[in-house]
Amino acid sequence: MRLGLLFLFSLCVLLVPRAVPNMAAAEPPSNAPAYTADGKLVFPANYRQWIYLTTGMDMNYNPNAQMPPGHSMFDNVFVNPEAYKAFVKTGTWPDKTMLVLEQRMSASKGSINKSGKYQTNEVMGREIHIKDEARFPGGWAFFGYGADMKPAQQIPAQAPCYSCHQEHAAVDTTFVQFYPTLLDIAKAKHTLAAGYLKDEAVASPGNTYQKTE
Fold it and tell me: Which residues contact 126 (CB under 8 A, 6 or more apart)?
């Protein structure tokens, strides 16, 4: 009799429906660009989980620009993983690429630091350079964000950042020349832009990049 009860209990356990894990809940947030009804680009909150490309310090492409005394800033660049993987394979950016520029203040005095500069938790601004060929003439657009990271309108196409990137960027209007892990890939794939090669020929006569093209 006891064996029969044990068998029935085991059979009941097998027949009870088990909860199926919610696979959708376990999926990471989508990295696809999202827009509001009025065309604003939603800032990707998980961008710091993306691929880190580079950090610049006090960079400026305007020869007349000067940083205020005592003011120094780091620029961190991240890209969505899907775009990074495509670039590694092809040497150029796929549609729906999003590059995030994060600007942080620097400091030199803090904790045990005695020299040099480090990044603080004070974010001065964020920008996005996005490739969305169906939405933007020329394929690319810029967006700037405040501290609240609310959805932003596109920076007008007449802004100088567009022409600067078009004329001087190493690959597909992006400054890959400042992304050390990607520049050699673009060189190997022969995707370096003519404008960049011209700039390099002037800045560094005899460099190897233009000779390989």
Answer: 43, 100, 101, 102, 103, 144, 145, 149
Strand ranges (DSSP E) for the chain?
Answer: 51-57, 73-79, 98-107, 118-131, 140-145
- pLDDT, tens only, 20-37: 445 444 555 679 999 999
Number of domains in the chain: 1
Q: Place 68 in a pLDDT band, splitting at 50, 70 and 90.
A: low
- Does 3 map to a domain? no
149: left (phi over 0), alpha (psi -120 to 50) or beta: left
Predicted TM-score (pTM) of this structure: 0.80
102: in domain: yes
Question: Domain limits at 53?
Answer: 28-211
Query: Which has the closest alpha carbon to 171: 34, 105, 79?
Result: 79
d(CA 95, CA 92): 10
Record the tokens describing residue 183, joined without a space.
Answer: 């520049």
Which CATH number covers residue 112?
Answer: 3.50.70.20
d(C-alpha 180, C-alpha 202), whole Å: 20
1 domain residue, yes or no? no
From residue 102, alpha-carbon distances to 128, 139, 196, 205 in Å are: 9, 22, 24, 33
Return d(Cα 116, Cα 48) in angstroms, integer. Answer: 24
CA distances 120 to 59, 109, 123, Å, are 17, 11, 8
- Is residue 60 domain-resident? yes
